[in-house]
Amino acid sequence: MISAQQLKGTGVALVTPFNEHKQVDHTALTKLVNFVIEGGVNFLVALGTTAETATLNDKERLEVVKTIKKANDSRVPIIMGMGGNNTSQLTDTINKTDFDGIDAILSVTPFYNKPTQEGLYQHYKTIAEASPVPIILYNVPSRTGCNLDASTCLQLANDFDNIIAVKEASGDLLQVMDIIKYKPDDFAVLSGDDALTLPILGLGGDGVISVVANGYPKAFSQMVQAAHNDNYIKARRLHYGLTDIIKNLFIESNPAGIKAILEMREIIDNQLRLPLVPLTEQTYDTLKAQFKAFQAEFWNAF
Predict the structure, then answer these.
(1) What residues bind pyruvate, as annotated (predicted)?
(2) Structural domains of the chain, count
(3) I need a surface site. Which of 58, 114, 198, 287 has the fewest CB within 10 A?
């Protein structure tokens, strides 16, 4: 069973590649899994937001996870996204799920309902009591409409041994600091924002679940590792080498930006499912110029 210590490093929220017919491209997904593992990431996240999971049907989700497990071949831990805003239905899904080859679940705060902090606590309490694998809390209020306060996160971390980490994407560094300062030793704090990963690591965070690591696994993993080694000269160089790219990955919608980068790397086709669409020509051209600039600056290393 995975521990908080095993989350110390770089996780990648894998995209779901599609072909020109908008079908899941399992060959490209296998290629991507090998690319990021060979690039040095420490764990994989399947069926997250970046995977366009909301556009996949139940059969496709099972097939995506199967492909990722096969390609991974037990090399690194696999985290599976499993969240929802119907607690009872989510618990039922957990009870019916085969977790063979899955090391933990990443569970987003309930979206749209806008529960109170007590509601959030009771939601996660119910999940913790049902889940046979550890749980990573996922706080992303810009998408869900509710924030998991530091006090609620810490209460969950202290009350349930199988709640082992939080992916913090609130963008609120004061909140992140409170969690890091008061968390149990066996609880990991993971950045949910690529651009804030280095600051969060500097504050004592443990790692990241990254989007940009799909396209830059080696550079981003080395940035995280350098920070863990207190080599902030190297970490800052890599951080600032990627910041312009990171900004443009999210300027329109995620994963449109990272899918454009992966197309430039000739790993996947630049295909998304509605309601998401590819980047506008202007943003694509800007990102391509930044892609070439990074390649030129870091060519020998990456």
Answers:
(1) 50, 209
(2) 1
(3) 58
Give the predicted TM-score (pTM) of the model.
0.96
- Dihedral of CA 285/287/292/293: which sign? positive
272 inside domain: no
Residue 36, in any domain of the structure: yes
**Is 50 annotated to bind ligand?**
yes
Active-site amino acid positions: 138, 167
- Longest C-alpha distance within the chain, in Å? 52
Q: Check whether 261 is labelled as a binding-site residue.
A: no
Note whether 252 and 5 are within 8 A (CB): no
Domain with 208 in it: 4-227
- Distance CA(144)–CA(123), nearest Å, equals 14
